[in-house]
Amino acid sequence: MPFLNTQHGPASDGKSGAGPRPSSHPIPDGSAVAATDLAQARRQLLQSSRSGKLDAAGLRQVLVDLHEFWLTSKGAELGIRSRSGFAIVAVGGLGRSELLPYSDLDLILLHDDLAPDRVAEVADGLWYPLWDANIPLDHSVRTVPQALQVASSDVTAALGLLEARHIAGDDDLSSLLIGGVRQQWRTEIRTRFPEVVSHAQDRWRRAGDIAHRAEPDLKNGRGGLRDVQLLGALSIAQLSDGMASLRPDSPGGAGPQAAYGRLLDIRTELHRIAGRPREQVRAQDADEIGAALRIGDRFDLARVISDAARTVSYSIDVGLRTAGNSLPRRGLAKLRRSPIRRPLDEGVVEHNGEIVLARNAIPSKDPGLILRVASSSARTGLPISASTLSRLGDYAPELREPWPAEALSDLLVLLGSGHHMVDPIEALDRTGLWGRLLPEWGAVRDLPPRDPIHTWTVDRHLVETTAHAGSMTTRVARPDLLVLGALIHDLGKGRGADHSIVGAELAIQVGSRIGLWPQDVTVLSEMVRHHLLLPTVATRRDLDDPATAQGVVETLGHNRNLLELLAALAEADSLATGPGVWGEWKASLISDLVRRCMRLIDGAGLATPEPLTDAQVSLAEGGGFAVRLEPTDGLHTYRVIMVAPDQPGLLSQMAGVLALNGLRSHSATVQSHAGSAVNTFVVVPVFGTPPEDGLMRQQLIAAVEGRIDVLARLEVRERESPIPTIASIESSPGSVLGAAAAAGSTDPETDGAGHPKNAVPALYAVAPPRVIWVETGGDDVLMELRTDDRLGLLSRVSSVIERRGADVRWAKVSTLGSTVVDTFSLFIPDDSPEARAALADAVTAVCPPPQPVSETGSGPGGTEGQTGTGRPGVPIS
């Protein structure tokens, strides 16, 4: 039986034998004529559909009905009836009742272990007429045990058979297969889950990300039809409900099923227009597809595809993460305690590898909770729980305008976290929370660029630009304005006018809402207005002409900070545009232009200490030790005034006491009066409430008297910190790899989420630390430190300065998001270039080191959407 001998090897979608038919066969001509009629009906149906009589969904349903009728009739003719021991089962498009115009027929002929001659006769009678009529066919002949064996050994086959549907013949036989495959899938999913994840990732690597491809693969790409089908498979395994928590008013709020329907309609029209089974949307077909579906032109179609694909991508991320956390434990894993809840911020904790709300958090009374959740996700690299996003969407109120300083600070922490900000912002955007924070975002969401050099949609380009800018925050004096400008520099696109001019007006609107000072709003608006100035002038004008640099300086109003910000933004913008946009030639031209402009701008004024208030003077003149804790306008922000007899090492002890109590310094002034050090700190508790000021006074006295080694205790606290960080999480359930690893882990030294139980958080900076020296014209010198923040940083830095013999005359400390800009006025007894270099090296040694660059991405931690083959770009733009 040569025909049967070709039917038992596994193949795609659970079928085999999809090759060409044999050249000769014993099938009667009458059977071939019936199949020819089927082919003729298919052709007439497609011709009539082109005239607009059938929409995409209607065409699919008629094709399903037509093929089911033929198969049922032909099956009856061949004796495939109830209790016959034969059944025709459909998988693929026909199994899902969504047959496309040029899709294969995916069929399985089931038999109850009947005689080989009889099986061959029925199989030949069913397959050959379809071959003769040139109807594409993917087929197999199986018994139920054979089909279950194939499904058990091949994950592709299993996923295909989960969509199996009875067409004709013995329904008990079909039910035995369908029920058996589903039961087997549920039973074996724990051991097979890593393979399922790997299978999906391989497909994504081959086909790329639909939302950000020039010619997206609607079927196999990330965010495509296969991913929704995978969600269904996880739902069958009872690991996920298959639906992400999306609000009706959020982008893609109708959920992955609605997104699936949009992509399926587009794929149907693609088949109809191309006249063949094509999966990639090409630019030459896009306008016709958009017109047929009444979407608009190819740019409108690209926006619809991007929105649908991002909804599906978010849903598959949530589905895989939920599935990984839902897997039953086996072996030694059963003995582990349930995952603990680790505090991250006020009202925010980590639980089982996800960011969730603390039990006492009340979203309806805490408008800033959304940003604290997002910044915690960016800081730790952990995903936000879907239930948390849903709860925030339902109950979190709008932030009052202007935003409180705490909310702005949390936004800056999020934006300054490099490429780790991409996932939390995407999660907020898909659930409608990002648009609530930034209403102007709706105009650029999923907006395809008109220039094909751009890799990303406009909104994703803004996020990518901000991510790149995060690695440049120590280059500029105002890192907060750099990341904010990067986020909104193209916000004026899609509004029918010059986006730089429109964007400058929007920048004023945004800056005022989020609580920037008026002068900072002006600088932010000028950044957006002139974000193309340096690249345009540097590449199109003669830099040797003095008028070139003079024109730039006059345009920028002789503002050194603005010039510095525009230089960094130009690089970040180019890096986020596409491959090859930023290179040595462009970098050298802009650098040369900036140097020429800097020579024309007057030097910036030197930093000076702020005068003491009357209350501070009174505390200083009282002598002795004093600590005063005062509330501020912020809900979770406090001011701490610490006074003690001035002596070497005092600043380090004061800052260390604050750090030991979990108080993170947002700003500080270090001064002296009447022989006492008068230091004022603005602090935010990492979580909880601050201790009593009397307790901190006793701790300060003990530290000064040497009864407490503050720095040693800080080191112990950091080693034993329960708070996870990006560097300490090699693979978390937030990534599908982490979920797969957790599923197969039986290591007793890992927790339920697959993390090491006693992992030591290793801190890394998104931007490298930088020390800048400024001459004052006197005996003192100003040392400016720019670095990423860490708990106790001020204590560590001031300790290094004091151990090196330098005297801190005064200091101003500012934390702008996650970046610290600290200015110290120092007296260095043996001042020399060598002494300054040694001090700078010692200071940067206690700062978080630059984060390693992932080999799998273009930025720290890697970048999504850059996998697959072919030219990257926005769909069909």
Automatic annotation (TrEMBL):
<dbReference type="InterPro" id="IPR002912">
    <property type="entry name" value="ACT_dom"/>
</dbReference>
<keyword id="KW-0378">Hydrolase</keyword>
<dbReference type="InterPro" id="IPR003607">
    <property type="entry name" value="HD/PDEase_dom"/>
</dbReference>
<comment type="similarity">
    <text>Belongs to the GlnD family.</text>
</comment>
<keyword id="KW-0511">Multifunctional enzyme</keyword>
<feature type="domain" description="HD">
    <location>
        <begin position="458"/>
        <end position="576"/>
    </location>
</feature>
<feature type="region of interest" description="Uridylyltransferase">
    <location>
        <begin position="1"/>
        <end position="343"/>
    </location>
</feature>
<dbReference type="GO" id="GO:0006808">
    <property type="term" value="P:regulation of nitrogen utilization"/>
</dbReference>
<dbReference type="Pfam" id="PF01966">
    <property type="entry name" value="HD"/>
</dbReference>
<feature type="compositionally biased region" description="Gly residues">
    <location>
        <begin position="858"/>
        <end position="871"/>
    </location>
</feature>
<feature type="region of interest" description="Disordered">
    <location>
        <begin position="848"/>
        <end position="877"/>
    </location>
</feature>
<feature type="domain" description="ACT">
    <location>
        <begin position="639"/>
        <end position="719"/>
    </location>
</feature>
<feature type="domain" description="ACT">
    <location>
        <begin position="782"/>
        <end position="854"/>
    </location>
</feature>
<dbReference type="GO" id="GO:0008081">
    <property type="term" value="F:phosphoric diester hydrolase activity"/>
</dbReference>
<feature type="region of interest" description="Disordered">
    <location>
        <begin position="1"/>
        <end position="31"/>
    </location>
</feature>
<dbReference type="InterPro" id="IPR010043">
    <property type="entry name" value="UTase/UR"/>
</dbReference>
<keyword id="KW-0677">Repeat</keyword>
<keyword id="KW-0460">Magnesium</keyword>
<keyword id="KW-0548">Nucleotidyltransferase</keyword>
<dbReference type="InterPro" id="IPR043519">
    <property type="entry name" value="NT_sf"/>
</dbReference>
<dbReference type="Pfam" id="PF08335">
    <property type="entry name" value="GlnD_UR_UTase"/>
</dbReference>
<comment type="function">
    <text>Modifies, by uridylylation and deuridylylation, the PII regulatory proteins (GlnB and homologs), in response to the nitrogen status of the cell that GlnD senses through the glutamine level. Under low glutamine levels, catalyzes the conversion of the PII proteins and UTP to PII-UMP and PPi, while under higher glutamine levels, GlnD hydrolyzes PII-UMP to PII and UMP (deuridylylation). Thus, controls uridylylation state and activity of the PII proteins, and plays an important role in the regulation of nitrogen metabolism.</text>
</comment>
<keyword id="KW-0808">Transferase</keyword>
<dbReference type="GO" id="GO:0008773">
    <property type="term" value="F:[protein-PII] uridylyltransferase activity"/>
</dbReference>
<dbReference type="InterPro" id="IPR013546">
    <property type="entry name" value="PII_UdlTrfase/GS_AdlTrfase"/>
</dbReference>
<protein>
    <recommendedName>
        <fullName>Bifunctional uridylyltransferase/uridylyl-removing enzyme</fullName>
        <ecNumber>2.7.7.59</ecNumber>
        <ecNumber>3.1.4.-</ecNumber>
    </recommendedName>
</protein>
<dbReference type="InterPro" id="IPR045865">
    <property type="entry name" value="ACT-like_dom_sf"/>
</dbReference>
<dbReference type="InterPro" id="IPR006674">
    <property type="entry name" value="HD_domain"/>
</dbReference>
